[in-house]
Each structure stands twice: as structure tokens, then as C-alpha cells.
Amino acid sequence: MSVITIERKVLEKNDDLAARNRELFRRHGLFVINLVSSPGSGKTSILERTIEHLAGRVPVGVIEGDVQTDLDAQRIARLRVPVVQIVTNGGCHLDAKLVSDALERLSLDGLHLLIIENVGNLVCPAGYDLGEALKVVVASTTEGDDKPLKYPSMFLHASALIINKVDLLPYVNCHLAALKGNALRINPSLAVFETSCTTGQGIAVWADWLVKKVQAVPAPVVR
Ligand code: MG
Ligand code: ZN
């Protein structure tokens, strides 16, 4: 009973801070996505391909969340976009406070898109609002087609699903129609994309959808 109460208080405090982040993003005319998945689904690779596709069109910044190391931030920095690494030191999700602290190390001026790569985990990131406009969940074909059934909350809270590593479909035990069907039964409004970061398949379709979202954001009130 007391555990439930503490958890609720933690989440309420998080929601307050997330609202503050969201207001900051609004004032900067910034579109923000929270990229979530289990470890190894290819979030950082999708980020790299997406940034390459948006180069010269959309100024993008990145916040990387990892349990240890800044290896992912190093990969993003090679693409010459502003990036800040959050190391959670064992923490299994990002929260609004961690993002707020990271924002002190990232200038939002001139950015139109901010991508927050969450810690690889399909459980608690579903419950922690960071102030993002929407969550995007990545599920790779190597994980099989039952992830939406096992982690429904994440798929319910997401606005888009990227099915990654579709080039491996002939070699893995994953049926694309089953994966899509399982996800859409939980959340019929999910926008679904199919990508391969190895072949580049589907990256343009996904990135162009993202550009439309960015373009729909009202102009900044500060800058
Ligand atoms: Mg990563
Ligand atoms: Zn967690």
C-alpha cells in the first residue's frame, strides 16, 4: 500500500517537471520525440540514418540516455549535431528531471527537432513523461513478433512504431503481419514504419513523416 503511494508521488512530481520541459519546448518551437525500445533494437542506428536524411533540412539536437558509457553520444557527435549524454548509472529509464538537467548543457536556439533516446527498456519508460510531443517505439524483427503482447503499455503510449531490421526477416522467427497486428490491436492509431538501417529501406518514409510533424509546430516565442 505505501509502495503504491510513493510511486504515485514520484510520478506526480515527474509530471510537473515534464510539463515544465514541455512549456520550454513550446516556447522554442521545438518538436520533441522520446525514442523507446528494448536494448539492441537499433535506436541509435535509426537516429544516425534519420539525422543523415534530415541534414540541411531540419536542425536537430539529441539527448542520449544510457545506463553506462557515452558511446552512443560519440556516434551522434560524428554527424555534427549537438548531443548531450545522460548516464543513469544503473537507472533503467529517463525521467523529466534528468532531461531538464541535460537541457542546461544543450542550447535549444535554432533547433527544430529534439530526439531523446531513452534507456533500452520496454517497461518503465512508458510511465515517465519527459515533456515530449510523442513517443516512438522501435521493435526489431530479431525480437520476434510478440513484443507488443508482452509490453502492451509501451505500445499503447506510443504514437508511432518503427519495425527495424526488416532486411533480416527471411532469417528470423518473426512474422511481419503478426507483429503489426499485435501492435495495432493494442493501439489502432499507431503509425507503423518498416526500416532497415543496413539497406536504408524505409528511412525516407519515416523521416518525411517526422518532417511533417516538425513543420506543424507553431513558431517559437523566444529566440
Ligand atoms: Mg542506443
Ligand atoms: Zn525504470
Write a brief structural summary.
By secondary structure, the chain is α/β, with parallel strands linked by helices. The chain is 39% helix and 18% strand.
Write the layout of secondary structure elements.
Layout lengths: L1 H26 L3 E7 L5 H12 L5 E7 L4 H7 L5 E5 L8 H8 L9 E5 L16 E7 L6 H4 L1 H6 L2 E5 L11 H11 L4 E4 L8 H13 L8
The structure holds magnesium ion and zinc ion.
Please supply descriptive tags for the structure shown above.
single chain, 223 residues, alpha/beta, Rossmann fold, seven-stranded parallel sheet, 8 helices, 7 strands, 18% strand, binds magnesium ion, binds zinc ion
Description:
By secondary structure, the protein is of the alpha/beta class. It has one domain: P-loop containing nucleotide triphosphate hydrolases (Rossmann fold, 3-Layer(aba) Sandwich). It is built from eight helices and seven strands, in the order H-E-H-E-H-E-H-E-E-H-H-E-H-E-H. Strand 6 (160-164), helix 7 and strand 7 (191-194) form a beta-alpha-beta unit. Helix 1 (2-27) runs parallel beside helix 4 and helix 2 (43-54) crosses helix 8 (203-215). The longest helix has 26 residues, at 2-27. It is globular, with a radius of gyration of 17 Å. It starts with a helix and ends in an 8-residue tail after the last helix. The mean pLDDT is 96. It binds magnesium ion and zinc ion.
